[in-house]
Write a structure and sequence with these properties.
- The complex is a heterodimer of chains A (about 280) and B (about 290).
- Chain A is α/β, with parallel strands linked by helices and about 280 residues long.
- Chain A folds into two domains: about 220 residues, 3-Layer(aba) Sandwich (Rossmann fold), CATH 3.40.50.300; about 45 residues, Alpha-Beta Plaits, CATH 3.30.70.
- Chain A is about 35% helix and about 30% strand.
- Chain A has a nine-stranded mixed β-sheet with strand order 3-6-7-2-8-1-9-10-11, sandwiched between helices. Chain A has a two-stranded antiparallel sheet with strand order 4-5.
- In chain A, a hairpin with a 4-residue loop joins strand 6 and strand 7.
- Chain B is α/β, with parallel strands linked by helices.
- Chain B has two domains: about 220 residues, P-loop containing nucleotide triphosphate hydrolases (Rossmann fold), CATH 3.40.50; about 55 residues, Alpha-Beta Plaits, CATH 3.30.70.
- Chain B has eleven helices and eleven strands.
- In chain B, strand 9, helix 7 and strand 10 form a beta-alpha-beta unit.
- The radius of gyration of chain B is 22 Å and the shape is elongated.
- The chains are: A alpha/beta (about 280), B alpha/beta (about 290).
Chain lengths: ~280, ~290
């Protein structure tokens, strides 16, 4: 069972929902796919061990063999190669690693080497039997999706995997959400929350992933998010109140299910609902 | 010389757009650019009246002509992005437009086609010209669209004789953020005193350092955890980063948002006057 926690808008409470859900369930994998700003472990404090580098292949040009024909630069769709008057200049950060330059080079002057753009780390908690897998994009690197894809290769299909997604609706979100069984969309009841929720709903519908909504900070804004969900027949899975105690625990990095046992049960109920929903759909 | 200010946060939801929309209200001669292109919200406060719509073409996408295809499978095995399956179907979400399949196809059955990946707009608002965008759902190249928005904003600023471009940036540290901050005169990072806020602040300051862009910080909702606010303040001071504002938690930003207004228009409360002084400091630093 693979569940993504996502939201168009940032700061709505994705990480809060992901971490608390994992702790409430136990026996789960938690994947922090917000690789630009991974935060799950701030709430868990696991000792993380590096598993591997995330690498993409980038070209290297042998200037002895290169005839400066410029075919590689012409072919590259990402402007990662430029032909200068006496050399070839590479811009590794623009390279997507497609290997096209190697194919088109008539002199066989281009080889590929691996370049690290991020890392994958793992931490475990024996007590709750939770495995955290965290991806981190290196500072200054633009491409998050390869880190997310490599992180998701660690999903253990026999267990519950909870995926904390990045904000937005662009390619890193697709990489996080596309292969999931269910997607929990976290929003807040404000005009910004509603606007960005509607974008996410379009996205998960296009990807054909089943979904429901969690309203966080319930009570701060207006009723338009609930009206929207009702009109669109989207299930509201949970409402987390705009509660000072929850906000203070959050600021300190304490998952609130640890201090508020009732919420542990609420998150388990949310999970049971998702399971029932998916089995009803005949999917799981 | 037109000055450019980008407001970012690393972590989402710290109050970027709340602060930028108030800056837009206070700035006298600025072009505003909403560069959070995959979840743009500025229009909900600025109520733009669009006068120009442009199509945005991101990366091209491969298209296979089934009638010509001989099912040799070379395209699928050459694709590094697993975007072509065994039925020679292209997954447009996975295709990164590299054109390797087009190159290896022995019967020229594959062509790379333009794909509209979004739109960007120029609008009149009560605070001046706004350039904003809508990235197609799940599209690549959000960095490229950010660059387009900024390019158009610069052109309009030059035409209008504006002295400033005010950029609302996206969350994160990746391509869209890099595109939103490169070449700006000042980055203002809006953070909050939570451990996530601090963690993300440090990473995003790392990005500004990496690209050697001047940076200042504003601590929003500073009173939800004063000791962490102090910690951020001290950390900034040690690293030579100026903390230009410490704004208290207040209900007025949400109330203003519900009414579609900026905070400084909505209320004359203390938060509103603190945002005014923040703007005074930021604009003084920018225009000096």
């Amino acid at each position: 069972m693979k569940i993504a926690i996502a939201s168009g808008k940032g700061g709505t409470g994705k990480t809060t929902v992901a971490v608390n859900l994992a702790l409430a369930l136990g026996n789960a994998q938690l994947l922090d796919c917000d690789v630009e700003e991974p935060n799950c472990n701030l709430f868990l404090g696991f000792d993380l061990e590096k598993q591997e580098d995330v690498t993409i292949t980038v070209p290297e040009v042998d200037s002895e063999k290169c005839s400066l024909c410029g075919k590689c630069a012409e072919f590259c769709q990402y402007n990662a190669i430029a032909k200068l008057s006496s050399s070839i200049m590479l811009f590794p950060k623009l390279c997507h690693g497609c290997g096209g330059c190697v194919l088109v080079c008539p002199e066989n002057a281009i080889t590929e080497e691996k370049r690290s753009i991020g890392i994958i780390e793992k931490g475990t908690d024996e007590h709750f039997n939770i495995e955290l897998l965290q991806g981190t994009l290196n500072i200054g690197e633009p491409m998050a999706s390869p880190v997310i894809r490599q992180l998701q290769a660690h999903i253990d299909e026999s267990t519950v995997a909870i995926v904390d997604s990045p904000p937005g609706t662009a390619c890193p979100v697709i990489a996080s959400v596309a292969e999931m069984d269910y997607c929990v969309l976290v929003t807040e009841p404000t005009p910004f929350g509603l606007n960005d929720l509607a974008l996410m709903v379009d996205l998960v519908r296009q990807l054909d992933v089943q979904f429901g909504v969690v309203i966080n900070r319930h009570g701060i804004g207006d009723a338009r998010v609930e009206d929207y969900c009702r009109a669109e027949r989207i299930p509201i899975l949970m409402k987390i109140p705009n509660d000072r105690e929850i906000a203070v625990l959050y600021s300190k990095g304490i998952p609130f299910v640890e201090q508020m046992p009732l919420w542990k049960e609420n998150f388990r109920e949310l999970y049971r609902y998702i399971c029932k929903f998916i089995s009803y759909q005949g999917g799981f | 010389m037109v000055k450019q200010l980008t407001v970012i946060s690393g972590k989402g939801g710290t109050g970027k757009t709340t602060i930028t929309s108030s800056f837009a209200a206070l700035a006298e001669n600025a072009v505003i650019a909403d560069c959070d292109v995959d979840a743009a919200d500025m229009h909900l406060i600025l109520h733009p009246d669009i006068f120009e719509t442009n199509d945005f073409y991101g990366l091209k996408v491969a298209s296979i002509n089934k009638n010509m295809c001989v099912d040799c499978g070379k395209c699928a095995t050459s694709c590094r992005f697993e975007a072509i399956n065994r039925y020679n179907l292209i997954d447009v979400y996975k295709c990164e437009g590299c054109a390797v399949c087009e190159y290896v196809c022995p019967v020229n059955a594959i062509s790379m086609v333009e794909r509209k990946s979004g739109e960007y707009y120029c609008s009149h608002t009560r605070f001046g010209t706004l350039v904003h965008a809508k990235l197609g759902i799940g599209e690549e190249a959000s960095g490229k669209l950010v660059s387009e928005v900024r390019r158009r904003a610069s052109e309009l600023a030059a035409e209008d004789g504006s002295d400033m471009i005010l950029i609302d940036g996206p969350p994160g540290t990746g391509c869209a953020v890099i595109a939103a901050i490169t070449g700006t005169d000042l980055v203002l990072v809006v953070t909050e005193p939570t451990i996530s806020g601090i963690h993300d602040l440090e990473r995003v300051i790392g990005v500004t350092r990496h690209f050697r862009i001047p940076v200042a910080v504003c601590i929003n909702k500073c009173d939800i955890n004063m000791s962490l606010s102090q910690k951020i303040y001290d950390h900034c001071k040690i690293n030579g980063i100026s903390v230009m504002g410490m704004l208290p938690y207040d209900r007025s930003p949400v109330a203003a948002m519900v009414e579609g207004k900026s905070v400084v228009e909505y209320s004359d409360n203390s938060l509103s006057s603190m945002i005014r002084s923040l703007w005074f400091e930021v604009s003084a630093r920018l225009l000096k």
